[in-house]
Amino acid sequence: MNAESSRWVTGPSMESAAGGARKTGLSCAECRRYVIPSKLKEFPCQSCKRRGCANICPEGTLSATKGNKVLMAHTQRLSGQVKSMKARIRELEEALHESQNPNHGGSKPPSLVQAPSQSQERVRLPELRTIFDEEVRDVSESIGSLSIDVDGRAKYHGESLGSECFQQLFPAQPSVPTDPKYLGLPFEMIDLCNAYPFGLRDSQYTKYLFLPFLPPRERALYLIELYYQNVAWMFDPIIRDDFMANILTPLYGHTGSPNINNVHSHRLSVFFILLASGVVYEHSPSSGVIAEQYHALSRAALSLDPIYQDATCATVQALFMTVRYIYQTDCTNNESRWLLMGVVARVAQLIGLQRDSEGWGLGHDETQRRRILFWEIYTCDTWTSIANGRPPALSINHTDCWFPEDLDPVTKPSGAVEMGWHVWKFRYSASCLGISVQHVFHARVPSYSALLELDLKIRKFNLPSHLQSPMEASEAERAWSPEAPRAMQQYCALYDKEANLLYIHRSWFAQAIRESPDNPLQHKYAPSVLAVYRSACRLISGLKGLYQVHPHPTSRTWFFWSSVFAACILLGSIVADSPRCTLASNALQELDQAMTLYEQGSRPCRPPATMLVLQNLRERATDAFNATQRDARQTSRSSFHYSDSEEVGGRKSVTTSLSPVSPASSAFSLDRLSELSDDFARQLDPSIVHYYRALADPGFVLPATGELELDNIPPAQPSAQYDATSPEDLSTPSPFFDPSLQVAMMNQSTHPTQSIAGPSTSVPQQQPLSYQQPQHPYFFETYEPEIISSKSGETKLTRWEQWKP
């Protein structure tokens, strides 16, 4: 019988007739059959192991058939199944360990009750792991809020929805008409406005339609000064020199007579929207109507040439400045801002702003114009996405754009030069805000250690001294700038860091209050409770100081007061849901002071319903705190109330009031924090751990508004993400932002031993930074919503009824 007639493998070959032994150093039988040169120095040979037939080496052979490919594919599939089952075993071990945590109440983790069909499918199709990561945990519960009317029109607000976007708080109609047909404009202008923002495909109109609407040169210069004094301090997509040289001078020349021949229609749109933004700050009864007229002219000018054919930097500038104009004039028009910001991002990508243009030889001025414009758009898009609870249109992973030159550096008395506001804003957005967006919108549950590492990164990000806010009277070395724009930048720098901390911590804050209402400082997420409390107090204290120095511009900046409103809600939830917490007494005092400030300072811009919301919240918080004091001798639960932490966290449940905190229980919370500090001391700077631990001491006076001295303290756990070359190291500023540093940081895989049953305070060695969405809803969310049908037929998800009178 011929050995090669077998289906797969032959038996041992016959020795030679002479009976001599087989020579050593020859190829194996399969390698000789397949004509593969190899030396049989080991068993099995490398060639057979590489081809997946090591079990037949050295004497066996495979039959010459296409079945070899099937066998190899079968072997690879079995290998994948083994890897998949090993990974599942590790997950179950971690889940079992996590289920023994007392904070889980002995409940079985969701990962242990996975449907058999899912597990079998994953083993049966291991290649799907390349699409769906095998370490994907349960999808976050913080799915956001949704409203749907009878016709199917839907509106979604996600996990981080801010109060400035909650439309039920705003009046139904704006005070100034915005429809172009009510602004006294000719029919041609209305036709062009209706084509905004994409423009007319075949326009029969010319730029000469706009000639009668150009103001005298002196009037234009006055409105331009108002714009750069009151608007451009925050976002400045077109610097003054650029505007004067490329728009104003070609329009008016040296004689002052308007001439639009040398100006593209999209630059004309920039001119009109800049005038509209400046008129808003003119003290005149008709300023609102005039501003809307200029706004309509800007929209009409942009529509003369379609943006998909004639897009330039001026196109992006006009669109972006329109978004900012709507933001400052109409707080009710959130959806229009959101959609238009998406158009801005797409047109910016259309002209390649996300890629640095130095290699294209565009010239210094054009390169700087593009860099400034991109980073202004990226910063605004990122904050807009967080406020709306929706993912951004631009990603830090997709850009290699350098930072622009610092056009406004500040020289200290010592001679040292510090970066200006705009350059600092760009660097902070790239280094901290971009990572926070990844954290907020990721669908997976993050590790708590990653959150604390991100917290430390934000706190340690360098802030120039001229942008630091005086938070306490004792800080004599700091003061609010006498110039209103500079002072507003000081508060914006404070807002950027503290509001960022609020957004990333408040879901964990809500869980701590919900699970440990007696004293959330005993909870393993106590750092989030303290971080939210401290940031809320600093936002309130900072705006109070700014309002005392510059009351008029502060009172007109409505998004400043939105942050105070959100801080009041968080402080009130501490008192109402955890009245026995060590922080409750101070939180109630801060709430009273914040409401006084809010009522006094926000009159020109606040929605009327917000004050009613805060008044009802304060009443409930005061009642809960007073009841705690009256029932100080009781040791059991006596009543229950609707939980504000459920409202902050987006869940609906009932939390009972607990016995008051005695000195003994306060001492216990100090001990408890000491125990917790052992868990997260490895993740936090020692000064932060000391700060958190000391807060539980009843005799400790909370420095709620004081700065943590972190600038000169190295991290407790050195990490490769925070080396000297990272963008947040500003001791030696570099003009180049290298996104690969952030990409490497954000794309690292999760540690295989990390828990999948929820956030944990345990920190594996060499734990990479994880940017995954918490499984706990954010403030202003509805996740188990009541469906309320209005008379108009619209079905809405609401949460404000509990605070309405």
From TrEMBL:
Domain Xylanolytic transcriptional activator regulatory: 337-410
Gene Ontology biological-process entries: DNA-templated transcription
Nucleus keyword on record: yes
Predominant location: nucleus
GO CC, alphabetical: nucleus
Polar residues bias: start-end ranges: 627-642, 653-664, 718-731, 749-763
InterPro entries assigned: Sec_Metabolite_Reg, XnlR_reg_dom
Entry's localization field: Nucleus
Keywords per UniProt: Nucleus
Name of the protein: Xylanolytic transcriptional activator regulatory domain-containing protein
Nucleus is among the record's keywords: yes
PANTHER family listed in its UniProt record: UNCHARACTERIZED TRANSCRIPTIONAL REGULATORY PROTEIN, ZN(2)-C6 FUNGAL-TYPE DOMAIN-CONTAINING PROTEIN
N-terminal signal peptide: none
Superkingdom per UniProt: Eukaryota
Family matches, as SMART domains: Fungal_trans
Region (Disordered) residue spans: 1-20, 95-122, 627-664, 712-731, 749-770
GO molecular function, one term: zinc ion binding
Stretches that traverse the bilayer: none
